[in-house]
Amino acid sequence: MMPVDSPRAQDGEFEGEIPVRIPLTLLLTLRDLDTPEDPRELEEMSLSLNLRRRLGLSSVVLKQIRRYEESGGDVRAAEVASLFELVAKRIDAPEIFASTGRRITHDAFGPGVRLMLRFGWRLVPSRLRPILAWGRVRKIARRLSPASKIRTDKGLNGIVMERGLPVLSTADSGGRGCEIMSGIIDESFRTYRAGEGEISHPHCEASGGEHCLWVVEPTPSANVEPAPSANPKEENLAANDPTADDSTAD
After folding, report:
1. For residue 51, with 0-12 CB atoms within 10 Å meaning exposed, 13-18 middle and 19 or more buried, which class applies?
2. What mean pLDDT value characterizes the chain?
3. Which of 3, 21, 206, 250 is the least crowded, having the fewest Cβ atoms under 10 Å away?
4. Helix (H, G, I), strand (E, B), or coil: what is residue 35?
5. What tens digit of pLDDT does each residue of 77-132 get?
6. Cross-sheet strand order for the sheet of 149-153
7. Backbone dihedral angles phi then psi of residue 16, each to the nearest 5 degrees
8. How far is Cα 159 from Cα 186, in angstroms, rounded to an integer?
9. Cβ neighbours of residue 80 closer than 8 Å, sequence gap 6 or more
């Protein structure tokens, strides 16, 4: 088991439990990124140098991956925060976290739902798609940071998270962990075909903000009406989204 050596984790700042799929996906993403396309690259460098440059291939990380794959269930939030803090020290941390967020979201839909959305997305009203996408983002965010206050901001077409695990665990690194939310939003909107747009993170607790805010800014080519235009019936349908599987990120 990887040590939970973060001072914040030891102080009990991170409460609750998180589905094991989330830390497992983070480590799998780290491992895949550190695995060279050409195996000969590993042979040409010394083992000690490889491990320093390729944390994802270290015995500690590989053992932890096996442990998560075998255990199932949930993991203490403090343990997940420690992993975030470890990964945030890397130069490519933003890429790792964003890729992890997309991967978690992709897996959460399941092959059957992805197939249904791939061929039946035209049956979903265009202005309902952003609502469904934000509903998916909210569901995964609550599993990622169970002790946080999370809400969507329809006026800004964004989502707000207060005292989120991603930012608190990586505050010393500028809140790099927040990129996992960008990845979750990106994949949710892509899967629901909820419109093209740039994902920005204008407010961050790591920079002194009162909360973290992520916003989807539609591009001129996006033909999807914003979520605030939806009527109560559509809101109710989104709340009971048949694609929002409760096993998300398990």
Report:
1. middle
2. 80
3. 3
4. coil
5. 999 999 999 999 998 999 999 999 999 999 988 777 667 777 776 777 888 889 99
6. 149-153, 158-162, 212-218, 197-203
7. 90, -175
8. 13
9. 14, 18, 22, 23, 165, 169
